[in-house]
Amino acid sequence: MATNITPQAWNVLDSVGGYLPLDVADAGAATANSGATVYPVQPSSLGKVVRAVNATYGVGEFILLKSAASTLVGSLVRYNATTWQATLNPNTANLAGPVAVAMAASSAGSEFVWHQIGGLAVIKKTAVQVAPGVAVYQSATAGRIMNTQASGKQILGAKSANLTTVTSTTSTLVVLLDRPHMQGQVV
Hints:
This protein is an all-beta fold. The chain has strands at 11-12, 29-30, 37-38, 49-54, 58-66, 76-79, 86-88, 97-102, 112-124, 135-138, 145-146, 154-160, 172-182. The protein starts with 10 loop residues before the first strand and ends in a 5-residue tail after the last strand.
């Protein structure tokens, strides 16, 4: 099940009119009076969580965040739950906090992008072989995961969902997410 993600195949289940599509990055719109950036399409607002269904991956949960610069579809990001700003998850141990998977690419750090926080997600990984049903960790490459144990870098609430071993040449991994977050201090 290590395939490329097709975010447009997700259909939002929640009753929200005018939502930003899951596979779109939006820079917002400038208001006529102030020139300040506003949220993309109401009633979407930062931190909003919706459920969506996909024929292959089932039901997933998604949160609207301000994107991280240089984000690819499938990048792992960490986000601030007060400002809703995402950054590529760094190669740093003991950074407890929520993480999510980008559903759209973003070159700027100011676009609005949906990120997956629940269900089966396709995440970018490093060139490692991954056995079925194992824990996943932040890799040495920001925004990518691996299955090699690393103290303080485990992604809690995430486990590989592949049914067979995924080769090192495959760049993505299907992972079961349940509101994932990075491991904090190891005592």
